[in-house]
Amino acid sequence: MHGLQALARARTASGDLENAIHDHLLYSIGKTTAAASLADWRMALSRAVRDLVVDPWFETTRRIYAEDRKRVYYLSMEFLIGRLLEDAVLNLGIEDHARRAMYRFGVNYDEVVDDEPDAALGNGGLGRLAACFLDSMSTVGVAAYGYGIRYEHGLFKQRFREGWQIEQPEDWLTQVHPWEFQRSESVYPIGFGGEVRQKEDGRTVWEPAETVLAAAYDTPVPGWRGRWVNTLRLWSAQATQVYDLEPFSRGDYLAAAAPAVLAETISRVLYPDDSTPQGKELRLKQEFFFTAASLRDLVRRFVAHHKDIRKLPEKVAVQLNDTHPAIAGPELVRILVDEHGLEFDEAFLVARGCLHYTNHTLMPEALERWPVDLMWRVLPRHMQLIERIDEAHAVSTHAANQPRPDSVKIIDGGNVRMGDLAFISARKVNGVSALHTDLMKRTVFRDLHALHPDRIVNQTNGVTPRRWLAGCNPALASLLTEAVGHGWETDLEQLKVIAPLADDAGFRTRFSKAKQTNKDLLTKYLKAKLDITVDPTAMFDIQIKRIHEYKRQLMNILEAAAAWNEMKRNPSAPFAPRVRIFGGKAAPGYAMAKLIIKLINDIGRTVNADEETRDRLAIVYPPNYNVSMAEVLIPAADLSEQISTAGMEASGTGNMKFAMNGALTIGTLDGANVEIRERVGDENIFIFGKTADEVTEAREQGYDPSAAIAASPRLAEVVEQIASGLFSPEDPERYRALVDNLRGHDWFMVCADFDAYYAAQREVDAAWADKNAWARSAVLNTAPMGWFSSDRTIRGYAKDVWEVDARV
Ligand code: CR1
């Protein structure tokens, strides 16, 4: 049967799916129904669902070739895709049948879905954005490949031991990954080190000292209803030689295996740093490894059907997700010059015609720099070309005698600055929110922007409403479908229709009921998984994201402690009962972030033990926050904490997911919060604190946190309690470094914004007291979220950046 027909049938009848599951269990997994474990059932169901995607996948490929479409290649070190089974079932529209089929086998569908390990091939926002973009490119019909690394170990698992973060290795690939196809024909040798030689015919050749193989594994990415299916191609590192026979025959088995172990190290683990790179040689090798393999692959695909390599930009748009793949500039030039015989100038133009770069952060410590000597050692030919690119750029923008500011140099102070390399190598450079894009022009890229005023564009981030509304929040999704009909899943602007219903008491009640259903589910989840009891009628106040000083989880927990003090002092004060939930991991080497985790847990321990305040305040920090946990937390949130120091959070995407699911935001005017406020209106969001310009100004004027503490008795009290060991009686000195930093430095302005935050939280309490008004605001948060669908974002890239069709 034709694949599309099979898919259509699978949507109308469950019998076929049932047979397919049964056959896979028997013939692919090799188990009988009687002997099958939960994991076996999951494999069988996953395989049966994957089968339904394969024909539409080939169909999509045929169309792309037939129409000779320009393709997008999204190069990203991270794809935080999470679980795939439930998402595929949702996208294909076969959930009822999948449920029924499993039920007939006597198996609980929800347990099967829950058995899947998260594919945690990313750290946070940047990686999750890439995953949302894959979903949207398949849904709006952009011909695309995602290219990344098939890490054997994704982001570490977080445990708490006495409240301290402990990292444990993640091992999602110890089980078969049922979604991927190994492509043994797509294997490329990737070189490192060695020498560059000038041939007699004038050609330059790079002779690497070491070679590792990049082997392709493909995962199909079905869009809505399987009408379009793109590919996520992840590269796994393999040794050119599995065994070194000489030491093996001597009986030295370790030495015999060593080359393979070393080679495979390249795709072994994801670096667990978010926004703060470590300049490790292995990381540089990872970056070059997947970038070079991806470029080799896309050039091969192009030349198979087109004669003139100079026409590459007509058919190829490469997106560099941050600077991690920025070596693509020199590598593409190298391919064009050394392998295709183009002159440097022309090669650079062709390369630049294909490349685009997204910047995700302005923090100076987050901009990648590689020492020049390391680069010469690992990538000698690329280093030559980087010098050439730097020089050519200087010549084209500055007269010979005109001084060139350091800020427009790629090589500076013994380092290669990857942001500048990416900027100079790219046709378009984009920021991820309006504010961030504006700040890019005014700060990090000010001088480059002046030289190339048309290059920077904005593409505000978005999130896929399939996973982050339809999938994770069935209660709200069905209410929305009743109100506006189907169609909002792929056209989120349709939700605007519910705005007037905010004034309809019946609708508000149903909206609140959906929220309560999700809060009850979260309550059960916390009880079942962590044995934590919370009151589902309390306000669920949630901050989930990586732990970072600029994200200010510290300010959140300080405010919780100040509220607790006030409750004790003034028992009749009108505090709304709250469950304050934290979730997130700290980079293993980030000592201050780990201390903040411990502080949250210490304050939680003290506050949760207090009988006097138990009915109004609980602090909960479930360990190992990941995509699957977010899918339970976000639909259950009443209040979304987006409280970064203004100017520091490039966009945020959690903020969008919360608002979409009807949570109200308390936040600063940072990143995409600004655009959320524009849409939900001032009266449906709690904005506080310094603006980005005010933060800069305060720093310039020599901000002194001790003055801010002195001016705020509540803050002073909490800081003193922490300093004196109230929350850590077994080790009163524990928070010395944290307190010293707050009193003496406080770069992220926790003290400066504290009182404003405290006041905003009391406004939240007051608003919570009027359940009707709160529900109204919640509806008015969901209604205008069309702008934050990643479909909108992808259409923007397709039009303004890639110049490709978006059409299924
Ligand atoms: C930013 O911190 C943004 C995501 C996706 C993060 C966050 O504000 O939403 O990117 N940056 O654009 C990042 O991970 C390496 O930098």
UniProtKB/TrEMBL annotation:
<dbReference type="GO" id="GO:0005980">
    <property type="term" value="P:glycogen catabolic process"/>
</dbReference>
<dbReference type="GO" id="GO:0005737">
    <property type="term" value="C:cytoplasm"/>
</dbReference>
<keyword id="KW-0021">Allosteric enzyme</keyword>
<comment type="similarity">
    <text>Belongs to the glycogen phosphorylase family.</text>
</comment>
<keyword id="KW-0963">Cytoplasm</keyword>
<keyword id="KW-0808">Transferase</keyword>
<dbReference type="GO" id="GO:0030170">
    <property type="term" value="F:pyridoxal phosphate binding"/>
</dbReference>
<dbReference type="GO" id="GO:0008184">
    <property type="term" value="F:glycogen phosphorylase activity"/>
</dbReference>
<dbReference type="Pfam" id="PF00343">
    <property type="entry name" value="Phosphorylase"/>
</dbReference>
<keyword id="KW-0663">Pyridoxal phosphate</keyword>
<dbReference type="InterPro" id="IPR000811">
    <property type="entry name" value="Glyco_trans_35"/>
</dbReference>
<comment type="function">
    <text>Phosphorylase is an important allosteric enzyme in carbohydrate metabolism. Enzymes from different sources differ in their regulatory mechanisms and in their natural substrates. However, all known phosphorylases share catalytic and structural properties.</text>
</comment>
<keyword id="KW-0119">Carbohydrate metabolism</keyword>
<protein>
    <recommendedName>
        <fullName>Alpha-1,4 glucan phosphorylase</fullName>
        <ecNumber>2.4.1.1</ecNumber>
    </recommendedName>
</protein>
<dbReference type="InterPro" id="IPR011833">
    <property type="entry name" value="Glycg_phsphrylas"/>
</dbReference>
<feature type="modified residue" description="N6-(pyridoxal phosphate)lysine">
    <location>
        <position position="657"/>
    </location>
</feature>
<dbReference type="InterPro" id="IPR035090">
    <property type="entry name" value="Pyridoxal_P_attach_site"/>
</dbReference>
<keyword id="KW-0328">Glycosyltransferase</keyword>
<comment type="function">
    <text>Allosteric enzyme that catalyzes the rate-limiting step in glycogen catabolism, the phosphorolytic cleavage of glycogen to produce glucose-1-phosphate, and plays a central role in maintaining cellular and organismal glucose homeostasis.</text>
</comment>
